[in-house]
């Protein structure tokens, strides 16, 4: 009798069910998301996030390639990590308060190489 291979998906689903942890997607946390153009422009976004929550946000628009994302100035209250062509912001659990951070994005907008500065203002929910 041959043993049937267990699919990876079945293992992940079973492990998740046994752990008692619910998988949660990042809520829509960016409230104002003006497109940047990779043309030495500066764009401001506004984020609203609950204490202890995470916001995962991609930066690529359908018509551009992102080559690099770097932190110009980090947040003072939360944690920020660059993840591929996006970022993950984790709000602190303690007393909620406003925060901000700035990213430098470089890449190609259609056929033109360039950079954009993204300033993100974080407001507590």
Verbal overview:
With 125 residues, the chain is mainly β. It has one helix and eight strands; from the N terminus they run αββββββββ. It has one helix spanning 8-19, and strands at residues 30-32, 41-49, 54-58, 64-73, 79-83, 86-90, 99-109, 112-124. The chain has a five-stranded mixed β-sheet with strand order 1-2-8-7-4, with no helix packed on it. Strand 5 and strand 6 (86-90) form a beta hairpin. The chain is elongated, with a radius of gyration of 19 Å. The N and C termini lie far apart (58 Å). Residues 8-25 have low confidence and may be disordered.
Question: Topology, please?
Answer:
Layout: H1 8-19, E1 30-32, E2 41-49, E3 54-58, E4 64-73, E5 79-83, E6 86-90, E7 99-109, E8 112-124
Parallel strand pairs: 2-8
Antiparallel strand pairs: 1-2, 3-6, 4-7, 5-6, 7-8
Q: How helical, in percent, are the residues?
A: under 10%
Task: Provide the structure class.
Answer: mainly beta
Mean pLDDT: 83
N-to-C series of helices and strands: HEEEEEEEE
Distance between the termini: 58 Å
Low-confidence stretches: 8-25
Quick one: biggest sheet?
5 strands, mixed
What fraction strand?
over 45%
Overall geometry comes to: elongated
Order of strands in the sheet with the most strands? 1-2-8-7-4
Radius of gyration: 19 Å
How many extended strands? 8
Q: Figure out the total of helices.
A: 1
